[in-house]
Amino acid sequence: LLEERLAHIATPMTLSVIGCVVNGPGEAEQTDIGFTGGGAGSGMVYLAGLSDHKIRNENIVDHLVELVEEKAREIEAAREEEKRADGEATL
């Protein structure tokens, strides 16, 4: 379900979804967006490798889609700004 919901995203980024509270945090710390499950009905969301907030398991797919779409917009905006700055530097 998550892969289908994110199929429209072409922007390179790292995403981890791991149900293990032992190995999950280590993996999530190396990603742009991460989720570790295994808690009592909730899991931890990691942003830029840092634990950020908890979310209930039943909301995680919608929440991850929102986070990935937002991150893709941020990355694309930064790319456009970099292109603009490079163009101005060559003038």
Keywords, please?
alpha+beta; 91 residues; Sulfite Reductase Hemoprotein, domain 1
Written description of the protein model:
With 91 residues, the chain is of the alpha+beta class. It has one domain: Sulfite Reductase Hemoprotein, domain 1, CATH 3.30.413.10. Helices cover 43% and strands 23% of the residues. It has 3 helices and 4 strands. The chain has a 4-stranded mixed β-sheet with strand order 1-2-3-4. The N and C termini lie far apart (47 Å). The model has no long low-confidence stretch (mean pLDDT 93).
| Low confidence ranges | none
CATH topology heading: Sulfite Reductase Hemoprotein, domain 1
Elements, N to C (H/E): HEHEEEH
**Tally the helices: what do you get?**
3
Radius of gyration: 16 Å
Highest CATH level, the class? Alpha Beta
Side-by-side strand order of the widest sheet? 1-2-3-4
